[in-house]
Amino acid sequence: MEEIINRVAQSALTTLNLEELLHPGERVVYDIKDNLFQGLILREKDFREFVKTHDWTQYADKNVAIICSADAIVPTWAYMLLATKLQNYAHRYVFGNLEALEQELFQEAIAAIDVEDYRDAKVVVKGCGNVPVPTYAYVAIMQKILPVASSIMYGEPCSTVPLYKRPKA
Fold it and tell me: Which of 11, 34, 64, 76 could pair with 93 as two cysteines, CB 3.0-4.6 Å apart?
């Protein structure tokens, strides 16, 4: 019987899986509407008391999207005040919905990549997985590694779509 050789495993390809770079912390929404008086206005004294006495430890190592789902005018300082408490506990917090939070987390992950790990490499940017990776993250990773990689492909090592090959000098 002839031995089966896994040529993909033996290849010089470097797989880059954006999903693996993402912070695993839970994503939660903090909706400031719960702090509005009669669902309409934010009373400074009440809000400051809430911020002072609220158990912020529940946000430890979580990723928090801060929103106001009510049709109310919330002063900017209120969001800033929330940030003063979340800073000590949350991994990341943003003003915006969960999509904005996810974008921030991908940007953070891509910024942390050491491009030297991909210098002169044949890179396969993994195209599917358990976590949906938005298109903007794929574009951002191209911007990061394009200057250093010798070639970039998309998909799986066994079935790739070629995207870029550095011209020979």
Answer: 64
